Amino acid sequence: MSFFGVDCVKKNERELERKLCANDREYNLSFKYATNAIKTSKYNPFTFLPLNLFEQFQRIANAYFLFLLVLQVIPQISSLSWFTTVVPLVLVLTVTAAKDATDDINRHRSDNQVNNRKVQVLIDRKLRSEKWMDVQVGDIIKLENNQFVTADLLLLSSSEPLNLVYIETAELDGETNLKVRQALTVTGDLGEDSEKLADFNGEVRCEPPNNRLDRFTGTLTYAGQKYSLDNEKILLRGCTLRNTEWCFGLVLFGGPESKLMQNCGKSTFKRTSIDRLMNVLVLCIFGFLAFMCTILAIGNCFWELNEGSQFMVFLPRQDGNNAAFSAFLTFWSYVIILNTVVPISLYVSVEIIRLGNSFYIDWDRKMYYSRNDTPAEARTTTLNEELGQIKYFLSGDVYDYTGQRLDLSEHTETVDFSFNPLADPRFMFYDHALVEAVKLENPEVHAFFRLLALCHTVMAEEKKEGELFYQAQSPDEGALVTAARNFGFVFRSRTPDSVSIVEMGQQRSYELLALLDFNNVRKRMSVIVRSPEGKLSLYCKGADTIIYERLHQSCNKLMDVTTEHLNEFAGEGLRTLALAYKDLDEEYFNQWKQRHHEASIVLDDRESKLDELYEEIEKDLLLLGATAIEDKLQDGVPQTIEQLSKADIKIWVLTGDKQETAENIGYSCNLLREEMNEVFIVSGHSPDDVRQELRNALTSMKPVEDSVLLPERTLGKGVKVLTDEVVNGEYGLVINGHSLAYALEHSMELEFLRMACMCKAVICCRVTPLQKAQVVELVKKYKQAVTLAIGDGANDVSMIKAAHIGVGISGQEGMQAVLSSDYSFAQFRFLQRLLLVHGRWSYLRMCKFLRYFFYKNFTFTFVHFWYAFFCGFSAQTVYDEWFITLYNLVYTALPVLGMSLFDQDVNDVWSFQHPQLYVPGQLNLYFSKKAFFKCALHSCYSSLVLFFIPYAAMHDTVRDDGKDVADYQSFALLTQTCLLFAVTIQLGLEMSYWTAVNTFFVLGSLAMYFAVTFTMYSNGMFLTLPSAFSFIGTARNSLNQPNIWLTVLLTSILCILPVVTYRFLFIQLCPTINDKVMFKVRRAKATPAPQPRRTRIGRTSTRRSGYAFSHAQGYGDLVTSGRFLRRPALSRSSGFAQVGRTTTIFSPMGRSAGYSPTGRPQNAKVQDVEVTSLQMYRTITNPAL
Fold first, then answer.
1. Numbered residues of the known binding site for ATP
2. Which CA distances in Å does 820 have to 215, 654, 773, 809, 1106?
3. Across the strands, what pairs with 1143?
4. Which long-range contacts (CB under 8 A, 24 or more apart) does 349-354 make?
5. Which residues are annotated as a binding site?
6. Which of 578, 1044, 1081, 1096 could in theory staple to 547 by disulfide, Cβ–Cβ 3.0 to 4.6 A?
7. Is 998 helix (H, G, I), strand (E, B) or coil?
């Protein structure tokens, strides 16, 4: 007991905090940390068979058929041979087991390859080559260039200056650009001296194992001093060392405890609405099966009591067998016979169909982006049909997925920067007045560009004299630093403690004292520098609303002027930042820096303590100016939005941009339109204000007395479902992030959702990643509709994972969104093809498959039910046992798969021409409970025809030669032949698009039936195995009679007649959108198909403000610790002119229009305000843009 007690204590301690000591294996082993060996495989040769079978029989279908097999080996119950169930069950189990075995063998190979890699470990003061699996926590290891990082390491020293290392993190986050890490100075002094490293006895206390790739908290105690550890000093397993000769690291987490392996947990399994419906229907089918078996068992009981005694002369009962016991046995016998209502092949076929439709997406050349060599990718195979049912489309910044440059008129004369030898020749600017102000040494203009040259996290590399290459965290950063460079304030280089710039030809070095980095909450960054003259200054740039809250009161008038100026930029949808600064007192700064150091080494709540210090020093700022950068739309964004809107897909944009920018871009991409009845703006600053604005909007859309009452119904477990409402006209909604926070509260969420769902388009601006996920969850919770979320950045991951379907766009913001998505591609415009073509076809095919599959199997099974009333409820089968075995596996498998893989009602061109074809999928019109019961009724009718017509046709019938043909075997053959022809003709009616493959499958399956039938009913097969092939000669004796074929023809006609009649009347009296379009297609076959329209959508004349800011964490800690980024020479050509956003306007001051933190009227002209000299310089832009 004590042993287990100690283990439990140690486990709890390890969960709270990790402790380890360098070069002390005995101490570290006492904590029983995981070794560095990994195991991703599930089986070994001894456990594969039992474990795999156990997993497979956890599926209800497999367990059900195993139960049937057990029943079939009981002679008193089974009237079917064991192979009728064993053959399909073994086939399914074998195929699945082979797939699982192949996957696990590959995992074993991968594990062995990784675990047996070699690395140099410092043992007994010497470097020894050891396998990865033998590395322990607390070991010091040596890595060399291009080696994989063995485990999660604390970087100790490296070959590079300032103890830097360069790593590639592609296996962690998909990003191939190099990142920099830097060791502490105290450990960097150890170098590569084995003796010093062996004597290193530092003690690390840090967080327990977790999956947070972007955060690490810990401390190192060494030589009596405590040092702060963060993520910038850690090398994670899965990274690759680049451009670094060697480095040494201390192992913190090994194997399964490393952050890479902690992130290998299973993702949430997403199921489609059809899957969920299927689960319900299968339960109903089981209930119906039990009901049928009960009726037949009762019938058997009555038959035994009334008729059975007459047969006792030659069929004597066993002792103790009475009518009740016979009925009990009959019940289980019919469970076996009628089991085909839930065929095991259904599940296998569904997976094949989904896999095939996934390949269509991967192979689609029209979704391939050649510029980046990026094809579309279906990262999951289980959600294809759900793509055809999307009702709510939630997007990140739909306009931010851009890769274009601004194209100015060639007749506009550009500024000549020849006075600056370090200028970037690719940078284009058009305001000559601003250049003249720089040359005249205007102090405000110089301060403006000095801030841009100092306040950033850009890394500079200079291979040749004067050839600078900037590597920036975002295109905006690169654009601004490049602009400052061309205007004479050239960022040249940096160290951990300084930033070197060239000011109008003069080299100056600023001491970098602190960098207050950007994050999601702060939405700003600051640097504290000391000039060569010894002056302390804080420079800050960030979101204008954030900066305005921290300005000195003396800036109030200037803020109003700035607001007016940015109104002109607003109509262009530009992204803005406000710039400010303040001078610092030396004594106060020294006190602040000491408190900053103390906060940076605490383990608990470190970030909040640092934020408090940042807030303290970033106040009473002086407004210096603002920047505006254009962010262009990708090709096809407006057309895509328009197409999705026509398909009745509700479009919600969830963006971090400010309200005015989001609204302006909404108009630009045709999300909001001038023709809308009204666009509601919800921007309340309190719950009451938000609620009142929502209710006012509801009243405007539905001016009735009960407009505040929620139309809802309950859906299981008390969950309320908000039903759709029809409004007159089209409306839009724009809601701010702070208002959204109130709207998402439990007391208000239903009102918000109701109002939003009545709008054609919804834009939520200034939202956090968490709020994005909350909005998705809200829609999923209260709307019976399928949601799709799309994004391209790390800030969209939570939203992508929360939605029914997540789509990632591989853009400039990394690969995090793609790695978390279900589908991915390179361009936003490909979304319409994914939904309107692939999604709609996949849904249509799956629904047709399910309807037909249930029809053919119900028809097959119900014939047994009717036959029971004519065989004394004896559980005798109406078909040959081999026909029962091969019906789903051979005779009807390929034709239905051919329809499910190749069928299409109209081609892709017509799908784009008529996006309304998408609507039936949203309404579940093709397959639902109603459609299922229609299918069951149709099957019931067909089974009646298929049993009673052959029964009547063969009753007292003789052959041409006078011999009797009305025997059981001939009747079985006739019935199964009629069945196969009827279901095959029904398949032909279901199919809209015939191909050579489909035709081959249909005709080939019929040919296969006759070939197998004549073979199995031959003399040779009977002589080989008489008990299994008892229908000797039946085929050749029956199928040569004309009346047999007339019966087949009559049953086929009677089976399809109601279907043809119903469809004809339905098309004539109440045609669907599919019927109308297919009629147009047939009428247009003689002429070429119309080309898809590309509507030119002009920008609205309404002027609205624009601003956006990245959600990504900054490189501030990296910069202050001197970690320079490196890239191969080929990538260094990416300068300002190649980024997606182009600096077109630099205003000395400003903010975005439409909101004033001072409470003054928006867009109001401010009179009698002294205009500073810097305000005189504006950019001349081409009006055509």
1. 477, 518, 541, 575, 655-657, 766, 772, 795-796
2. 19, 18, 14, 11, 29
3. 629
4. 349/849, 349/853, 349/893, 349/896, 349/897, 349/900, 350/846, 350/849, 351/381, 352/897, 353/845, 353/846, 353/849, 353/897, 353/900, 353/901, 354/381, 354/382, 354/384, 354/385, 354/842, 354/846
5. 477, 518, 541, 575, 655-657, 766, 772, 792, 795-796
6. 578
7. helix
Give the span between the Cα atoms of 378 and 350, in whole angstroms: 17
The rounded radius of gyration (Å) of the Cα atoms in the chain is 37
Neighbours of 821 (CB within 10 A): 28
659 neighbors 736 (Cβ within 8 angstroms): yes
Dihedrals phi, psi of 896, to nearest 5 degrees: -70, -30
Residues for the chain: how many in total?
Answer: 1185
Distance of CA 986 to the CA centre of its chain: 38
The token duo for 877 is 């089968």
> Domain 432-630 carries which CATH code?
3.40.1110.10
Instruction: Of 438, 470, 682, 479, give the one whose Cα is nearest residue 577.
Output: 479
Contact 493, 480 (CB under 8 A): no
Nearest to 650 by CA among 744, 809, 776: 776
For β-strands 489-495 and 467-471, DSSP reports them as: unpaired
Secondary element (H or E) of residue 481: helix 475-486
CA–CA gap between residue 1135 and residue 1154 (Å, rounded): 34
Task: Give binding residues for Mg(2+) as ranges.
Answer: 792, 796
Q: In terms of DSSP H, where are the helices of 769-829?
A: 769-782, 797-802, 816-819
Domain coordinates in residue numbering, the chain:
49-112, 135-264, 432-630, 839-1075
Q: Which two tokens stand for residue 553?
A: 């009161």
- Tokens 């069929």 label which residue? 315
| pTM, two decimal places | 0.71
**Dihedral sign, Cα of residue 237, residue 241, residue 245, residue 247:** negative
Is residue 613 classed as helix, strand or coil in its secondary structure? helix
* Same fold for the pair 135-264 and 432-630: no
Q: Read off the pLDDT of residues 16-71 as tens digits, 9 standing for 90 and up.
A: 889 999 999 999 999 889 999 988 788 888 889 998 888 888 777 777 778 878 87
List average pLDDT for each run of 10 residues in the chain, which is 1185 residues long.
36 69 93 89 88 81 79 74 73 81 84 92 92 95 93 93 80 65 90 92 92 85 90 90 91 91 63 82 88 92 79 62 82 87 77 89 92 87 89 75 32 70 81 83 88 87 76 73 91 84 91 81 87 93 85 85 70 76 91 88 80 90 83 78 90 80 78 87 89 90 57 54 83 89 90 91 84 90 90 78 88 66 89 94 94 94 93 87 86 92 91 92 90 93 95 79 75 94 94 92 94 87 78 82 91 94 89 86 71 49 34 51 40 33 36 33 37 36 33
Amino acid making up residue 927: F
